[in-house]
Structure formats: C-alpha cells, structure tokens
Design brief:
This protein is α+β, with helices and mostly antiparallel strands and 176 residues long. It has 2 domains: 33 residues; 138 residues, Umud Fragment, subunit A, CATH 2.10.109. Helices cover 18% and strands 34% of the residues. It is built from 1 helix and 12 strands, in the order αββββββββββββ. The strands form 2 sheets. Strands 1, 2, 3, 4, 9, 10, 11 and 12 form an 8-stranded antiparallel sheet that branches. Strands 7-6-5-8 form a 4-stranded antiparallel sheet, with no helix packed on it. The longest helix is centred in the N-terminal third of the chain and has 32 residues.
Length: 176
C-alpha cells in the first residue's frame, strides 16, 4: 500500500514536470518562429515608442506579403550592428525617396505624416530603392540613425525580422 502511494506521488510529479516542459517548449518555439519579445533601445521611434518600452513582434507578418509604407519593423543590419533595430518602412522596392528642405517626398509626392518631420535644412538627393530592399527611418528624425545616414541606405528583405504589432509595457497599445 505504501508503495502504491509512492508510485502515485511520483506519477503526479512527473505529470507536473511534463506540463512545465511542454509549456516551456511551446514558449521557446513561439519566440523562435512566431512572436519576438523585445525592448526598445534609444529614442529614434519617439513618441510612438519610448526607450525601455516592451513590444511584441510578429515574425510571420511578411510570409504572404511584403512590408509596406508605414510598417514598424524590427531588423538586423549586420554591416552596422549586431543589435536589433526598430524603424518605419518609408520606401519599398522601386520607390523613389527624396528629402528637400526637410520635407520627405516618396515617388515625387510630399509625405505629410508626423513621422516625416525633419529639420528644414535636411536634404537628400533622390534615390531609387532596389529590388528586395527597403528605405527606413525613425519617427524621431533628429535622433534617428537610419537609411538617411547609413553608407548603405537599404535594408534587404532578409534582414527584416518582423513587424511590431503590440506595445505591452508600460502602457499597452496596438501598433499600426
């Protein structure tokens, strides 16, 4: 009888360990392939995202579609840093991007979004975004190290990790 109690106790503990193992494995797989949990470093996406905000990134957002103008993405640009970078897609393949007197022009049209506000002295000659590449900028243009300043201004399609979808800390907010 004592032996049966011990066996039941061991089986019960094994069930709990199995549940914990499955939960951890599921969390690891989700983090590796579906959702990335990341912290904002820097002020380049202010006021939308602030230093030390925590966000979820959809790793599979671009499986059946391409990033588009305005998407907030997490990327790795190995020629710059080993850290992840968070920026907004401005130019997509074959778009032209130009900055004249602090005003952003996309395909010859003035972009009048708040995130496109720059110092009136800023200028950038017209460039065409190559196939499978993107031009990105931070919303806080005075603080952002982005495509405007990089030697190689383009982000390759395979350097984009995913799309920021939700800020969960400190104030939860859906990111569009």
């Amino acid at each position: 009888m004592e032996r049966n109690k011990k066996l039941k106790s061991i089986k019960g503990k094994c069930k709990y360990l199995l549940i914990i193992f499955i939960a951890l494995l599921t969390a690891l797989l989700l983090n590796a392939f579906v959702v990335l949990n990341t912290r904002i470093i820097g002020k380049s996406m202010y006021p939308l995202l602030n230093q030390n905000d925590w966000v979820f990134v959809n790793r599979i957002a671009f499986v059946n579609c391409e990033p588009s103008f305005g998407d907030i993405v997490v990327l790795k640009k190995p020629d710059l840093t080993n850290e992840t970078i968070i920026k907004r897609i401005i130019g997509t393949p074959h778009d032209t991007v130009e900055i004249k007197n602090g005003k952003l022009y996309l395909n010859g049209n003035l972009v009048e979004n708040d995130f496109a506000q720059m110092d009136e002295n800023e200028n950038m000659s017209i460039i065409t975004v190559p196939k499978n590449c993107y031009f990105v900028m931070g919303d806080n243009t005075s603080e952002s190290n982005d495509s405007r300043k990089w030697t190689n201004p383009f982000v390759k399609n395979n350097e984009i990790i995913g799309k920021v979808i939700f800020k969960y800390f400190p104030k939860p907010r859906i990111i569009k």
